[in-house]
Amino acid sequence: MSNQTKGIIKPIGSKTKELTLISLMAALICIMGPLSIAIPISPVPISLTNFALYFVVYVLGMKRGTMSYCIYLLMGLVGLPVFSAFTSGPAKLLGPTGGYLIGFLFAALICGLGVMAVGNLRAVTELQACYDKILGSICISQMNRNQIIIDINNYFDFRIAEFFKRINSKEMQYCFMADIYKLYRLSLWSQDYCKGILDNYLKVFRFSDAECNFFENFNNAAQQGNVETAVQCYRKFQEEGYDVSYQILVYFFPGFSMEEYYNNIDIKAGETFVLDKPSLIEGDITIERGGSLLINGAYVNMKGCIMTTGGRVRFDNARIKVEECESGYWMNFKETAVVNIENSFIDCGKTCGFIRQETGRLIIAGSEIRRTAGERAVSFNGLSSLIENTGFYNNVSGATGIYGSAKMVMKQCSFNDCYADYGGAVYSESIGNVKIENCNFNRCKAAYLGAAVYFKYQKFGQYARGCECNGCIPPGDGIFNVYEDDFELRVR
Asked: Could you tell me the pTM of the whole model?
């Protein structure tokens, strides 16, 4: 669609609608044009053509409003009685009111320019609230927001060049375009302004026809609230060899939802398999050496386990529910370099332990691990592990186990309703350093020793400091086998 002046209607989606509206407005002028009020002292009557013309330009904009008036003028010239006092014909242009008929053509153009000017001013205020919301969502302070306006006014060329250097990945460009389309949908007076910006950025980012069509069609589906059409649009986009993250789709269209279905998943060497949509997996995930699994913001229901020898695994904002697992652990890792689990929620449904890792490093941060059974939630025999700001809940058979020469640091973790024979929450028989700092143990229970923590060997380099034990059983035996200097526990 061309970047033209427009008034109060939304952009016209097709030529048929555009022609229909132009014709309807021409008919409106034809109806009101012949109506006039005679003035005794002047040969020129007061015509309602003025009102009709201004209204049409206000609604349709300069270009289409002018086209409507031209149709009206042609209809009168060919003999239809649509001029004032129900007159018509070329002779009317030579009469005392002919100049007005020609002047109205220029009036439509001038009025359209006025509508455009006022519309652009209103566009700025119309989009202000949405603009502030976007800046607020990315945590930009008011001072920096003011600086953005200063930079746009004074250093635009430099800042726009810097912007394009940073927006250099498809994911970032897609997210940026989603914001522009949201402004486009929310605007009224600024529709043409936003449309022009959209077209420019599509060219700057060098989007293919498939990408342009996807954004246009997905935006239309979002406007209509049609989830089925949006899913079909996304599927077609995938078939054409493209993809966009589920988080961007939901951000673009808040009502959007879809679920992927998988049987067994085999991830080959050099391949990265991404789960970022609601998924149902009925089978196992096997990762070959050199393969990678990324679960990013996905809700995953799984009947099976994850296994790898030499693969890489990362969770970020994942929500996992294990419905069935025939293995002792949901994740079994050998010869793995790094496993990174951040800001995730894992519910093992009392079917298994969460992870057993025999090599490499393990990082768990800002997560929750719930309802494990049969084995400890985490069994680690690798090089080093960091577990921080993580909650363990209802871990039958205990929360963490450290073995071999593994080193582990646990900071600001919470252990709740964890049960085992030795060390209700934490069990260690490692000869490496194990450090537990500022952790809470609530209602943890050991059948024999170490209601909260059990160290098999008493040695230097392992300690529990700044910890608190609430309602643990047996009472008075919260942490077993540490030197007094390495033992700091508050019991309630």
From this structure: 0.65
